[in-house]
Amino acid sequence: MYGLIILSLIGIVISFYLYNSKKKHRKIVCVIGKDCNKVIKSRYSRTLGVQNEILGILYYMIVILSLVLVNMGFPLGVFLIVVSIVAFLFSLMLTCIQLFILREFCEYCLAVFLINLIIMLVIIF
User: Fold this and answer.
1) Which of 25, 29, 33, 82 can bridge 105 by disulfide, Cβ–Cβ 3.0-4.6 Å?
2) Quick count: other Cβ atoms within 10 Å of Cβ 55?
3) How many domains does the structure of the chain reveal?
4) What is the extent of the structural domain holding 56?
């Protein structure tokens, strides 16, 4: 449980960093890709009008709250499984967009993808 909370906190920090950088119009330095800004400022950076970073922050907060409630005895296991699968599939889709459409990578987005994969696998197994 503590590992998932730590991963979720890291996800919140990364998502907040990207959100704050976009809000303050700061250039994001990316080591893997040539231009992280091309990724995080693309037309794919919003879902239903909401910035993906905000959705990420909300997801990680839901994971933390759900883990605490499960630890207290609330039956949220199925909910956590479904939410983690949806978040992973969403981040997989965004990673594929980076690879096949934008042809540019954002290392922060890839880190979030990896975090979502690990959270999903730990919750399922």
Assistant:
1) 33
2) 16
3) 1
4) 2-124
- Give pTM, 2 decimals: 0.95
Q: For the chain, what is the HEC assignment?
A: CHHHHHHHHHHHHHHHHHHHHHHCCCCCCCCCCCCHHHHHCCHHHEECCEEHHHHHHHHHHHHHHHHHHHHCCCCCHHHHHHHHHHHHHHHHHHHHHHHHHHCCCCHHHHHHHHHHHHHHHHHHC
- Residue 74 neighbours by CB distance under 10 Å: 11
pLDDT in tens, 61-93: 999 999 999 999 999 999 999 999 999 999 999
